[in-house]
């Protein structure tokens, strides 16, 4: 008898660890899920189901980090292909212990399915409802005010996962038997318009007071978010570390990497700070 996938033993009674074969590339962290499934938590510079895709290690390739003032927001079309599964990663800094990082609902009146990522008293919370009960998953460690953090959320059917800074993975699942996340409204980042009613079960109703360096949705890096947003309010370029003014010389562009950075040099210059000329002396 050939055992079913993910099981072994004469009667397929032994459940195998789906991470035992080390399926994740580039030193990524493998997280075992139910039903012999797994999820790869990719380090900076990689993406994909198995972290097999190489990406730029920097933040937004435009070099523009966006500043949110607490009443700001960016609007985008509904999260794509989110019915059965979803993966989102955000690099952010906050100046406040409370704030909304992400929200997408089903209906304009605040009822129906939704998914949200919030800061509540300094702790990240992933909250979602598929129509039969709300799941709330909270990080065990608080954020540091003024520091850059990465947060990864994923959802497969009714199961969710939340991870900050490649630390401990926190898991949970929504109640009931419904397994699809049905969304119909725009996706909001950093806050929502004043007229938009949020899901009543969301405790946090204020926007992010901080900044966002990078966003990855289903392994797609969203560079230059400002240019392809469908609406926006009170968004400005962020000026602050790690890309302090003048850190990259000779018209080099500073690309933030959480609390680090790299300089993208123009032709004729190289080095960490673009301070080395590559022109040969004549």
Molecular structure report:
It comes from Araneus ventricosus (Orbweaver spider). GO terms for molecular function: calcium ion binding. By secondary structure, this protein is mainly β. It has three domains: 1-53, Laminin, CATH 2.10.25.10; 66-237, Jelly Rolls (Sandwich), CATH 2.60.120; 240-281, Laminin, CATH 2.10.25.10. It contains one helix and 25 strands. Strands 7, 9, 14, 15, 16, 18, 19 and 21 form an eight-stranded antiparallel beta sheet that branches. A seven-stranded antiparallel beta sheet has the order 13-12-11-10-17-8-20. Strand 10 and strand 11 form a beta hairpin. The chain is globular and about 70 Å long. The protein starts with 6 loop residues before the first strand and ends in a 5-residue tail after the last strand. The model has no long low-confidence stretch (mean pLDDT 87).
Query: Per DSSP, what share of the residues sits in E-state strands of 2 or more residues?
Result: 35-45%
Overall average residue pLDDT = 87
- Total helices: the number is 1
> Class of the largest domain, according to the CATH hierarchy?
Mainly Beta
Biggest sheet overview:
8 strands, antiparallel
- Derived structural class: mainly beta
Low-pLDDT residue spans: none
Rg, Å, rounded: 21 Å
Shape: globular
Report the end-to-end length measured between terminal Cα atoms.
76 Å
Keywords: Disulfide bond, EGF-like domain, Repeat
Protein name: Agrin
Domain EGF-like: 15-52, 239-275
Pfam families: EGF, Laminin_G_1
């Amino acid at each position: 008898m050939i055992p079913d996938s993910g099981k072994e033993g004469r009667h397929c009674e032994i459940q195998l660890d789906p991470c035992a074969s080390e399926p994740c590339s580039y030193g990524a962290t493998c997280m075992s899920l139910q039903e012999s499934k797994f999820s790869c938590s990719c380090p900076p510079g990689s993406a994909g189901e198995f972290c097999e895709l190489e990406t730029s290690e920097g933040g937004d390739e435009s070099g523009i980090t966006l500043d949110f003032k607490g009443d700001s927001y960016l609007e985008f079309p509904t999260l794509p292909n989110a019915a059965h599964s979803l993966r989102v990663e955000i690099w952010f800094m906050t100046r406040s212990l409370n704030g909304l990082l992400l929200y997408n609902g089903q209906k304009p009146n605040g009822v129906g399915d939704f998914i949200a990522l919030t800061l509540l008293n300094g702790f990240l919370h992933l909250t979602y409802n598929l129509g039969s009960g709300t799941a709330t998953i909270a990080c065990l460690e608080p954020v540091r005010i003024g520091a850059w953090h990465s947060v990864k959320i994923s959802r497969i059917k009714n199961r969710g996962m939340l991870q900050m800074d490649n630390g401990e993975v926190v898991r949970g699942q929504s109640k009931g038997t419904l397994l699809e996340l049905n969304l119909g409204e725009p996706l909001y980042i950093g806050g929502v318009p004043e007229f938009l009613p949020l899901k009543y079960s969301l405790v946090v109703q204020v926007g992010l007071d901080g900044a966002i360096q990078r966003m990855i949705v289903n392994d797609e890096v969203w560079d230059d978010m400002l240019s392809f947003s469908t609406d926006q309010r009170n968004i400005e370029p962020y000026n602050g570390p790690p890309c302090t003014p003048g850190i990259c010389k000779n018209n080099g562009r500073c690309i933030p990497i959480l609390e680090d950075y790299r300089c993208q040099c123009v032709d004729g210059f190289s080095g960490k700070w673009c301070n080395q000329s590559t022109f040969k002396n004549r």
